[in-house]
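User: I'm curious whether this sequence folds into something compact or stays loose and floppy. Could you predict its structure so I can see for myself?
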Amino acid sequence: MTRGPWHVAVLMGGWSAERPVSLSSGEGVAKALESRGHKVTRIDMDRNVAQRLAETKADVIFNALHGVPGEDGTVQGMMDLMGLTYTHSGLATSVIAIDKQLTKQALVPHGIPMPGGHVVESESLFTADPLPRPYVLKPVNEGSSVGVAIVTAEGNYGNPIARDAVGPWQDFPELLAEPYIRGRELTTAVLGDEALLVTELRPKSGFYDFDAKYTDGMTEHVCPADIPIEISEACKVIALHAHQLLGCKGASRADFRWDDARGLDGLFLLEVNTQPGMTPLSLVPEQAAKLGIDYASLVETIVEEALNRAGAAHRTGQGHG
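Assistant: Here's the prediction. I'll summarize afterward.
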């Protein structure tokens, strides 16, 4: 596949909690493609998105959506039915990766280290703790640390959790309960079939929640991370293996917790993000830049991979996948 010029529809926005991040990602992608001479149509997703995509007649859709329904297989299925070529992962991968419990079921049997835990009814939290404190509660299928709560021994939400305490139990009928892993926040990007680098995320206060991720100055990014080489290599091996096991396409990002008091035994994969952010604060562009891949080249690489994959699928009579 030549480098164009292409007509790219950048799909962004939507109505998830991550809408502002998606708009920032999408605008960055659109400007980068335009700077390289490509034609870009910006589409802020609404309920008429199928009609708008059909009318655009783009060569490829750059999926810059984050969260539901742009990252959970819904939009992927729609685009598959329409016969559209799009970036990042396909339907089945998206369905599994957005669901933290399904991700564990797919990866843990293959030796990927992930925290234990189980799904609980939010209503049950007001009676008893599902795990010994400290533990983490998070939505089963949201990204960007939306709705994450760390329940500590000090009883910061009450003991048991108070019904009127502000937390994800007020917004989600079910939550994933996991043991809290002390230590450090690490993340590794995968582009195509290569793990890039390891970044350590050091929030200035609290933990790496939604605000810390997307507010300039709230989190220090140490890239490459100042960690032992065996931990760095393990992150890259696990990230790439998870990317391949799940069938991820284009770019993905694997998030880890590392208990540095336990060495290699303290490294746990938390989740795989199939549509990582492309904002000015995002981690995939940052890691690519450290390796000499500028932002526009990164975007073109992701688009080109989707076009090449679609061309190969067309030659073999297969769908997007």
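Summary: The radius of gyration is 20 Å. The mean pLDDT is 91.
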